[in-house]
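Reader question, answered in our methods column.
A reader sent in the components of a multi-part assembly and asked whether the whole thing could be modeled at once rather than chain by chain. We filled in our standard form and ran it. Here is what they sent:
COMPLEX SIZE: two components
ENTRIES:
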Amino acid sequence: MSSFTLISAALRRKKTRTFLTFSSVVFAFLIFGVLAMLQTAFSMGVDLAGEDRLVVRHRVSLFQLLPQSYEADMEEIPGVIDAVHMTWFGGVYQDPSNFFMQSPVEPAEYLDMYPEVSVPEEAKLRWIETRNGAIVGRALAERLGWEVGDRIPIQPTIWRQEGRGDEAWEFEIVGIYSSAVEGFDETQFLFRYDFFDETRSFGRGQVGWFMVRINDPERAPEIAAAIDDAFRNSAAETKSESEGAFAAGFANQVGNLGLIVTSILAAVFFTILLVAGNTMAQSVRERIGEIGLLKALGFTGARVQRLVLMESVTLVTTAGFLGMLLAVGLERGFRQALAAYFPGLYLRPEDLALGLGIAVATGLVVGIFPARRAMRLETALALRRL
Amino acid sequence: MSAREPSASQDGNAAGLPGATMVDVRGVSRTFRRGRTPVPVLKNLSLSMKGGEFLALMGPSGSGKSTLLNLIAGLDRPTSGEVVVGGAAIHRLSERKLAAWRARNIGFVFQFSNLLGALSAERNVAVPLLLTSFSARERRRRVAIALEIVGLTDRGKHRPRELSGGEQQRVGIARALVNDPALLVCDEPTGDLDRATSAEILDLLGALNRDHGKTILMVTHDPVAAERASRTLHLEDGRLVECGHDGTITVPVHEPAGAAV
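And here is the structure of the entire assembly that came back:
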C-alpha cells in the first residue's frame, strides 16, 4: 500500500463524477491532438521546406504561366545551382472528390531537386522509357488502389489534348514513390513534361512555377531579388521567395490557422479548468472530515496538500494521456480519409509531449487551490465534520 | 507489537508503562473566538492520568470534553497552560513535529469509524503505517495483529459497506492500534451503536486496557460506557469533578487553580 492507494480511493469515491470529469478531459485532449494534427498538415509545407530552395512564380498570381525558357536564364544567375518547373494540371480522376495534385515535371531534374522523394531505380528507368509514364505517391496509390502498370485516365479541366476535345489523358503508372521524411506529401501524381508539352492544345513552352536550388540559404533574399530583377519589365515578371515563405503564404490563404487553433484550444482548456477544478473543489469539500482524520493520524498539512495535488494531476494527466492516445489511434484513419486535402496529417512527437506537459500543468493548476485549502484545514474543526 | 503482550509506546517512552504519569495537563485554558467575542471553554484546568489508566470523561454538550480531548491528543493547542503527554511538552511542538508525535503516540477512535469506503478493512487499518518506514512485510504483520486483536482476522478483505456498524468500529479501533500507541483517545466510541454492539466495543476497549496495557481516555455521554472506566471525571462549566459510576460527585477537584485530579 502506498500514497497512491489513498489517491485511488479518493478518485473512486464518487465514480460517476470522476468518470464524467475524466471523459471531458479525454475529449479535450483528443481535440487538442486532432487540431495539432491539422495545424501540422497546414504548416507542413513550411516545416518541410528546403532552406536552399526558392519558389519563382508569376508576379500576378500562381496561375499565370511563365516561359519555360526562364529555367536556363535563372541557372545563369550567380548563386543559382539548378531550377526545375512544375505546372498545375488540375485534372479529375473519375470523380472530383478524388482530388490530388497532378503536375508535369522533367523526371531526372525533379528527382535531383527533391532528394526526399524515393523512387526505385527500375521505376526511374521505366519513366524515361515510357512517354506517358507517371509516378505516384504511396499514400495516393493506396487510397485509390493503384499499382504499377495501371493505366489511369485523367479528365482535363484546363489542359486539353491537341485535336481530342475533352478526351481523357491516359497515363501509365511506372512507379510509386515514398519518402522517409515524416509528413512529406505522398499524394502527388507526376508525369513527364515532354509528353504534356507536345500533347496539350495550347500554352506550349509555358509552365506554372519554378523551384530553384541556391548555393547559400543565407543569401536567399538577395538571390530571389536578382531573379526578379532579371525578368523585370518582361511580359512575365516573377515573384521569388523561399519555399517556406511560399508554403506559409499558401497555408494562410485559409486564415491565421495558428491563431484559430490556439483560440479553440484556449476555450477548451479554460472549460476543462472549470470542470476539473469544480470536481476537485467539491471532492475536497466533501472530504473535510476525512482530511481531518488523516491529519489526526499524523499526516502533515504539506503531505495532505501533496495528496490532493497528486489526485488532481493523476486525474487530468491520465485522462490527457488517454486523449492523446486516442488522437494517435485516429491519426491513421484521418490520414486515409483526408489524405487528398491534408497530405501531411500526423501527430508530431513534440505535440504529444506538449499535450502531456499541458495535462500535468492543468492538473497542478486545477489542484492547487483545493490542495491549499486541505493543507490549511484545522484538524480539530475538520474532525467535527466526521 | 503482539496480540497478547502489553506494549510500550513506539518511541520507547516509559510513560506508557503502568503507574508512570502518562498525561499531565497543567492550568490549561482554551478560548475560542466567535467573531470578535472571546468564548472561554476551558478555564485553568488541570488533569493527570497514569499509564495504564482507563479514564472516562463525561459532561453535558458544550462543556469542553472534546476540546480537552483534542488538547491531550495534540489536535489543538491551549490558549495558556501546559500539556505534557508521555513526557513530551506537546504544546511547544511545531505543527510538523506534533503531527509526527501523534502518528507515533496516539490512537484515535471516533464516534463514526470514518473508514475509506473504497479500501478494504486491512487497507484502512494500514493507513497510519504510510507515515512509517516499516517494510511491507512488517506492515502486513502489524495489520494482521491489529485485526486479530479486534477479532476481525477473517474480514480483512471486506469493504466497509460489507461490515456491520460494530465491525466497522472494530476496524477503526484496529487502525488506532496499528502503530502501537501508548494512549488511545476515544471520542464517543459507542455513540452511534446499539446497546449490544456498544457492549462489545466497550469489552474490546476494556481488554485493550487490561490485557495490552493501553492507556485510554474516553469521552462519553453514556453512564453505562463510563462504568467500564477505572475512573470517571465530569466536566461542567469548565471545571472537572471526579464522579462515582452512578454519577454522584465524590471529589471536587478544581480548587485551588492548577491542582491536578
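What stands out: Residues 220 and 242 of chain A are 7 Å apart (CA to CA). The interface with chain B takes residues 1-3, 5-6, 8-10, 12-13, 289-290, 293-302, 379-380, 383, 386 of chain A (CB under 8 Å).
Send us your own complexes using the same form.
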